[in-house]
Amino acid sequence: MFQIFFRNGTNLLLSEYITERMASMPQFDVLIIGSGLAGLSLALKLASQRKVAVITKKSLLEGASVLAQGGIAAVLSKEDSLNEHIQDTLTAGDGLCDPTTASYVIEHARPAIDWLIAQGVPFSRDASTDSGYHLTREGGHSHRRIIHAADATGHAVQETLASKVIAHPNITLLEQHIAIDLITGKKLGHRHNQCYGAYALNCLTGEVITIAAHDTILATGGAGKVYLYTTNPDTATGDGIAMGWRAGCRVSNMEFIQFHPTCLYHPHAKSFLISEAVRGEGGILKLPDGTRFMPAHDDRAELAPRDIVARAIDFEMKKRGLDCVYLDISHQPLHFLQEHFPTIYSRCLSLGIDMARQPIPVVPAAHYICGGIVTDLHGRTDVPNLYAVGETACTGLHGANRLASNSLLECMVFSNAAAHSILATPPGPSIQLPQWDESLVTDADEDIIISHNWAELRQFMWDYVGIVRTTKRLERAQHRIRLLHEEIYEYYANFHVSSDLLELRNLVLTADLIVQSALSRHESRGLHYSKDYPGTLPMAVPTVFIPNA
Ligand code: FAD
Ligand code: SIN
Known about the structure:
The chain is 35% helix and 17% strand. With 549 residues, the chain is of the alpha/beta class. It has 4 domains: 15-66 and 158-256 and 368-423, FAD/NAD(P)-binding domain; 71-155, no CATH class; 262-364, Succinate dehydrogenase/fumarate reductase flavoprotein, catalytic domain (Flavocytochrome C3, Chain A, domain 1); 448-530, Methane Monooxygenase Hydroxylase, Chain G, domain 1, CATH 1.20.58. The strands form 5 sheets. Strands 3, 4, 8, 9, 10, 11 and 18 form a 7-stranded mixed beta sheet that branches. Strands 19-17-12-20 form a 4-stranded mixed beta sheet, with helices on one face. Helix 2 packs parallel to helix 13, helix 11 (334-340) packs across helix 12 and helix 15 runs antiparallel to helix 16. Flavin-adenine dinucleotide is lined by residues 33-39, 55-58, 62-65, 67-72, 153-154, 178-179, 219-222, 231-232, 235-236, 239, 273, 368, 390-392, 405-408, 411. InterPro entries: FAD-dep_OxRdtase_2_FAD-bd (IPR003953), FAD/NAD-bd_sf (IPR036188), Fum_R/Succ_DH_flav-like_C_sf (IPR037099), Fum_Rdtase/Succ_DH_flav-like_C (IPR015939), NadB (IPR005288), Succ_DH/fumarate_Rdtase_cat_sf (IPR027477).
């Protein structure tokens, strides 16, 4: 006899529950959770042969993808080679990239770009190059190989794909719907832990719907909101990692958080990135007195990989008690800046900073999570019929540090791989699923607990689990996370869910996985730097956690 476990700890026999609560539910061949580049490109690749639902917790164009500036890395020039792109990726990943994954992704980059061009993405052109496109350069790349649409690549890509998704008759789009949890065999008491769909909260009505699907995809993006200062959008709350973990998926390499070296420092700028392409086109990092400092930290100076540049800035700021450092590209002519960086130029100007005449104040901020749900070369997770694609996945491409502009590429290559895998199996009939039960919970009395805990979590993660770590600080963070976890669990078990509560629950779990992973790594490697373990061990071993292990 199977039992249903309610959020507040009571339970019912499954047979009683099903007769009582079963009602009509939306059914699809494929449910995609998230409308970033991973989600939208996958939806378009499936829609000619499958009935697809895309749910997204805010509006269609909210997420990290639309904010991407620099571009997409791919070997498009005759002077470049696949081997060099692979080697640059492995070097940045500091021993922890999976070489098979790196080769797979980089070899599939050209068709991925060709597909985007065929969809109509207006990449910046340059008649003087052999590809016909302007290729920019970023830290850690040995060649110019970043195809881009000026400095708003993500916007150009997402607008192009979104217009096709909206028009497609086989794609149902549900905006303002936040996935709460996956529905799995384990949760239904089955012997096999297959994924059958998800529960989602309609953020406008407060209703929870049950969505059944033959295949479900986590395409929920990253987790930058776990930190106080981040380049990430509000949507980046680690939901996919947390849902996947609760469903029974392994997570890997969660300690490797990439801090982007140059986020605009201004009281009125909410998380605005100054693209690495600014350094690629000659931008120089300076102290307030105008001294250049990067050559003293690394021979590659401003074009060293991000972990090195971010740590150098952090070092200089802490040593000198600075609020920020400066990025100076004022030696380039105005027309060059307006052509290559129109978004950055106008945003800075709107805040009174003329980058053609003065340096831009910048600070590092949390930017990307290299770890996530473990997937194979098809985007499959440990749970049958559940895939993870994009930033929420850990494919092995990035290892201990992601090479700039390899992330959008990974979204494209793995959405294609997942589409092939899904299309290879005909979708069977969906099973009837129990509806969400709210009968034993009440309205929350005090939302202050949620807002207070959000703020507290983000502050101590920034202070204790930042660019430079110590065991003592990590243990402090772990202690606080345990307290927050208890409070939030109690709140979740007893009150109606809200999007803030769901996100906080996921953020705390993600933070816990980050801290546990960081504590378990007794060395410094890639993005993880510990003052207590400054050396790098001879053998590179990924951190892998198994749920309930
Ligand atoms: P996202 O684009 O973040 O999309 C995730 C989607 O999931 C969103 O629609 C979100 O609302 C939705 N979602 C999340 N949780 C839920 C839930 N519970 N229920 C329903 N929906 C949910 N990488 C590069 O390669 N090149 C660049 O130039 C570049 N520039 C960047 C600039 C900035 C400012 C930032 C923040 C990142 C940049 N990156 C860049 C990284 C890259 O943009 C991201 O890694 C990539 O876009 C992730 O795509 P995604 O589809 O996985 O996630
Ligand atoms: C940037 O434009 O600097 C961001 C590129 C990236 O994160 O890959």
